[in-house]
User: Fold this.
Amino acid sequence: MSASLVPLSVLDLAPVPTGASSAEALASSIALAQTVEALGYTRFWVAEHHGMPGVASSAPAVLIGAIAAATERLRVGSGGVMLPNHAPLVVAEQFGMLEALHPGRIDLGLGRAPGTDPATAAALRRTVEGLSAEEFPQQLAMLRGLFRGQVRGLTAVPAEGNEPPVWLLGSSGYSAQLAGLLGLPFAFAHHFSGRNTLPALALYRSSFRPSEVLDAPYAMVCASVLVAETTEHARYLAGAGALSFLRLRSGRPGTLPSPEEAAAYAYTPQEQAFVEDRLDAQVIGDPATVRRQLDELVGATEADELMVTTSTHDPADRLRSFALLAELAGTNPLAWPRAA
Assistant:
């Protein structure tokens, strides 16, 4: 791929719309993966969230297996596995098996925060040991060692000899610096931590040390994008996700509301300001607007790869958004042209 082209990939949360079931949401995610593969996207990553009625993606390894089996070329991975929630041996066995079943198509993206409430995190691990994010480097070292048969007294089958590419994920500087020091690829969560994007990427690049994995830094930026025929309709559709995020931050998580429900919601002035700030931080609009905003994002971040996440109440609107974005890119495999 030319250095002037930035590959396009997808992050999916398996959103559960109001009125639909988790099973329907997971089926929609598999259908989306098949669609974006045909359109030419490079990767399809799934998230790990627990205790959220509006997100069906709680077991990334299981969902990755289903998506990889339903596709042929697409790289499928985790965006990410929250390592404090899991024993490194379990993650090594799961992703070693995925890599053995689908060689050359699996990515293991890792996060350092539990990403859930303390009770759920403790229930996942059945202990409070290892839940601190400060223990992440040791857990990561053990996990990578298990893939390579370097942990004394432990044999991880079928992980040994089946190590997928390991990515570090982050929304601040900690994982950015660690990824740089270890010479690993880094994915930044611009979609919910946009103010930290440029400082974190700068820290990653300044900290980078060449490794057996990478000779130079490789940074992927994940952005929330919604494309529709008109900017007005795109913002109307995006209102559902903004209301869902407002409810989550208010301690009232629920399923993904419809845009009609979001439009009719009686926002307080503070809530309206929160929603507008949320929408303004995303890439939302008609094709021309989205092209301009993504050009600006890629130019400012100097991203090596662009990952897009899109949530809509109606799965058809999500499919349409990815199709319109593919038309804007206009290459196969899809890549965003870097401005000269």
Summary: Residues 5-229+285-337 form a domain with the TIM Barrel fold (CATH 3.20.20.30).
